[in-house]
Design goal:
Length: 176
């Protein structure tokens, strides 16, 4: 920094230059910004599905049964997203509990091909169980009033939906 030799005062320009140099040095020494806790779930949800081929086939009767159920899930997820964006914890808990306690399709009791549930692959029932568990986790997170736990749990719930769709839902018109 340069001082005026007659007054011994450091000029404003010299002080500003020194401050910039100090801040630049400090910026280089700081650690990178911490990633939000749900970053891993976001990456996982956006990752390409681990499906080597087309979606698993579902019988037309099973697909028709699931169509109404999926429309109900879409409404529930939309309502849930609104509550999450506004951090309305009581609504988040209620909506997540609704999803967790929704009617469950039962695994088939026999291998009778006339039983509708026998036309649904076991993997669907596994995904259904995963959905219910993730919804319970989200409801529990909402009760803690912790937005980071809610975000993490919502990421896992959404990931469950996306993975099930990747397994069973035919691609949309843009991807055919």
């Amino acid at each position: 920094m340069s001082k005026n030799p007659s007054t011994g005062i450091v000029s404003a320009g010299a002080r500003a230059a020194g401050l910039v140099a100090l801040l630049a040095g400090a910026a280089c020494a700081t650690q990178p910004a911490r990633q939000p806790p749900q970053q891993a779930q976001l990456h996982s949800a956006l990752a390409a599905p681990e499906r080597p081929g087309p979606p698993e086939p579902l019988a037309p009767a099973a697909r028709a049964l699931l169509r109404d159920r999926m429309a109900s899930h879409a409404r529930a997820m939309s309502d849930l997203m609104g509550a999450i964006m506004l951090l309305e914890y009581s609504q988040i808990g209620l909506r997540a509990d609704d999803i967790a306690n929704d009617d469950t399709l039962s695994r088939p009791m026999t291998n009778d091909a006339t039983e509708l549930n026998a036309q649904i692959p076991e993997k669907f029932f596994v995904r259904q169980d995963d959905l219910k568990a993730a919804a319970h986790t989200l409801a529990d997170a909402a009760r803690t009033l912790n937005p980071y736990r809610v975000a993490d749990a919502y990421g896992r719930l959404s990931e469950t939906c996306v993975r099930c769709h990747a397994d069973f839902r035919p691609p949309g018109p843009a991807h055919r």
